[in-house]
Amino acid sequence: MFLADAAVFRMRGLGWIMKGHIPVARGTAAVTRAFHHAAAELAGGAAVLVYPEGRIGLDPGLWPERGKTGAARLAQASGAPVVPVAQWGAHELVPYAAPRGAPRALARSLRRRPVVRVHFGPPVPVTGTPRQATDAITAALAAALAPLRPDEPDLPRHVDPTRPPPMGPPR
């Protein structure tokens, strides 16, 4: 089950795929409902996938940015462990700016047959304040991602020119 921006649930072609997942309408009271829904699912033993940044990352090297505290607060509220999952290669399937042309971008990239690799790291202790726990989660994600990118010390092989540059310090 994913926590995702409510706008994704309204996208043509994606809305039906997101059925059964948890929409997060940022800046509204629905955020609290989404949090409690996710915490209840976690307490009941479900797996809930959360991108700690709360959005698609903007780092040009595609490294995790400083996360928001939601994943840590969910873990602390539910007692669920945080297992960092790093994936590498999805950016070669559909570039950042492709949502409008996603079907064409996906078809074009599938001809190149990109490889998507996934790494599951060890559970991260969720202790201290939510900010401290979030920083530990972000560090664990970067550590889990590093082995997937051994040939890319500074920048990824594929730099997505459509990805906007970061705007100031991580949020």
From TrEMBL:
Keyword hit for Cell wall biogenesis/degradation: no
Keyword Secreted among UniProt keywords: no
Q: Where is the composition biased (Pro residues)?
A: 162-171
Q: Which GO terms describe its biological process?
A: phosphatidic acid biosynthetic process
Biased segments, Basic and acidic residues type? 149-161
Question: CDD domains annotated for this entry?
Answer: LPLAT_AGPAT-like
Region called Disordered, residue ranges: 147-171
Ranges for domain Phospholipid/glycerol acyltransferase: 2-90
Write down a Pfam family by its short name.
Acyltransferase
- Entry keyword set: Acyltransferase, Transferase
Q: Which GO terms describe its molecular function?
A: 1-acylglycerol-3-phosphate O-acyltransferase activity
Name the UniProt record assigns to this protein: Phospholipid/glycerol acyltransferase domain-containing protein
Origin organism is Phytohabitans rumicis
Q: What is the lineage of its organism?
A: Bacteria, Bacillati, Actinomycetota, Actinomycetes, Micromonosporales
